[in-house]
Amino acid sequence: MKQVIKYIVFALLIGLSLYNAVYFESLDDHKRGQNKGVFDVKTLAIDFMASKTETLPAINASEFLVNIADDITGYCKNNGKKLGISDNYNFIIEGNATVATIEDENILLVLNDDKEQHIRIATDFIFGNAIRDASAIADIGDFQNTMDFNSISVELNNIVRETVVPLLKQKVEEDDELYFKGAVEVNTKHPDLQHLKVIPLIIKFKK
Amino acid sequence: MTDVKNTLVKFQSIIALLVLCIVLTIMSDKFFTMENGWNIARQISINVCISVGMTLVILTKGIDLSVGSILAFSGAVAAGLLKFGLEIPSINTYIGFTVLGAILTGLTVGGALGVFNGWMITRFKVPPFVATLAMLTIARGATMLWTGGFPITGLGENFDFIGTGWFLGIPMPVWITVVLVVIAVVVTKKTQFGRHIYAIGGNESAARLSGININKIKIWVYAIAGILAAVGGIILTSRLDSAQPNAGMSYELDSIAAVVIGGTSLSGGRGSIMGTVQGALIIGVLNSGLVLLNVSPFWQQIIKGLVILVAVIMDRLNHPNDD
Questions:
Q1: Is the pTM of this model over 0.90?
Q2: Domain boundaries, chain A
Q3: Number of domains in chain B
Q4: Which of these ranges, A48-57, B61-70, B184-193, has the smallest mean pLDDT?
Q5: CATH number at residue B260
C-alpha cells in the first residue's frame, strides 16, 4: 500500500512539473505570431537612416567632451548606452564645427564653442556597433541569435559607408563650417578621449 | 606527535586556504572585501557543482572527463528550448518550454549522458577515462550541432535570475551550490548509497562479494555527475544570458583539481564532499588573488599546476599504501 502511495505521489509530481513545463500550440499560429516580431534587418536600417536620424535625441558635442573628460565612468553610466557586460558605452552626439584637417581616415573638426575642442569624424573605417547601440534601434531580446542582431550594425555601417561618407568626402574642404550628428563609442577601461571618432549619421554644410 | 601530524593532515586544505587568504590579504588591499568575497563565491559555484559529482565518481575509483562538455550541451539545450521551443511540422504542433521546462530538460539531458557513461563503463567494461573522453567529444559535437556554432542569447529575466539574481542578500548560484553540497554531504555520510560508493572505491571485489550491486551504483554515480554538470551549465548559461558553444572547455580539469586538492584519493574510497568544496575554494581564491596581483595568465596556469602537484604529492606522502 505504501509503495502504491509513493508511486501515485511521484506520478502527480511528474505530471505537475510537466504541466508547468511545456505548452502546445498549432505550428501555423506560432509562426504567425513569431513573424509579427521578426525584423527585416535591411528595411529596418534603411528606414532608420532615411527617417529617424533627424529626430534622434543627441547630446551636445561640446558638453559631451567636457563631461566625459571630467568623470568618464559616472558620465558613461548615467548617459551612455551599452550592451550586456561590455565596458563600451555609446552616445549620439551633435554639434557645429569647423573642418581643421582632412586626414586619410578621418576629418578633424574644431567645435564652434569657446573651448575649441577637437573631435574626429570617421571617413574610412566604419565598423562596430556604435550606431546600433547608441540609437537603441533594436532590442537584442527580439533576435534569435547574435548574428542577426549584429547584421543590423553591418547594414547601418554599410549605408553610412556608401551614402553619408562619400558625400562628405566629395564636398569637404578645410575651414568649412558644418553641422554633424553621429554615434561615438567610449571604452571606460581604455579611454582614448583624444582620438574619439564619430560615425556620421548627418552632415550639413553651412555654405 | 602523531596526533598533531594527523590533525594537520586532516585539516591541511583548510590550513592551506587560511594561509592563502592571509598572504593575499597582506599583498592586495582589494582581496579581503565583501565584493571580492561574493565574486569568488559566484565564480566557484559552478566548479563546486561539477566537483561534487566528480568527487562521487572519483570515490568509486573512476574519472569523468566529459563534465565540461555535458555542461555546455545541457546549457545549450535548455537555452535553445526556452528560446525556440520544438517545432513538429508533421503534426503541425509547436511545443513551447517554460523556464521550468527548459531547466528540467537540461537536467534530464545531463543525467541521460551520465547514464550513458555509466552504461559504457559497466556493461562494456570500457575504462572510465576512455568512455568519458569519448563523451567529451560527442557532447561537444552535439553542442555545436544544436547551436549551429553560434551563441543562443536573450533568454529572459526569469531565466537570468538563476545566475545573476540575489535572494536574502546572497547570490542565487551560491544558494543552489550550498543546497547541493548539503544534500551531497548527507548522501555520502548518512545513506547506504553513500557507504556503497566508498566501499566500491575502497575495494571493488570485496564490495561485490558483500552483495553490493556495483553496476547500479556506478551508473547512478555517473548519472548524478551528469546532472550536476547540467546544473553548472544552467547556472553558467543564465549568468551569461547566453549559451556559448565552447562553454565549459577544460572545466573537467578545474573540477579534478578541486577534488584532488580537497584530499580525495584518485585511487578511490577516500575523500569527502567538504574537502572538495575546500579544494574549489583554494582554486577560486588563488585565481582571484593572482588576478588582483596582476600575475600574467601564463604564470597563473603554472602556479595552479604546481599547487595541484603539491596536493597530490602530499596525499601520496600521507597515504603511502594507496594503489
A1: no
A2: 2-205
A3: 1
A4: A48-57
A5: 1.10.3470
Phi, psi of A100 (to 5 degrees): -95, -55
A to B CB pairs, distance under 8 Å: 64
CATH code for the structural domain at A2-205: 2.40.50.420
**Stretch B184-192: mean pLDDT:** 95
Nearest to A24 among B84, B89, B93 (CB): B93
Residue (of A144, A18, A22, A36) closest to B94 by Cα position? A22
pLDDT tens figures, B128-162: 999 999 999 999 999 999 998 888 988 888 899 99
Domain that holds residue B218: 30-318
A19 at interface of B, judged by CB pairs closer than 8 A: no
E-state strands within chain B: 86-88, 93-97, 152-153, 166-167, 170-171, 242-243
Q: How far is B32 from chain A (nearest CA, A)?
A: 23
The minimal CB distance from A145 to the residues B87, B97, B152 is found for B152
Residues of B in contact with A149 (CB under 8 A): 153
Closest residue in chain A to residue B87, using alpha carbons only: A27
ipTM over 0.90: no
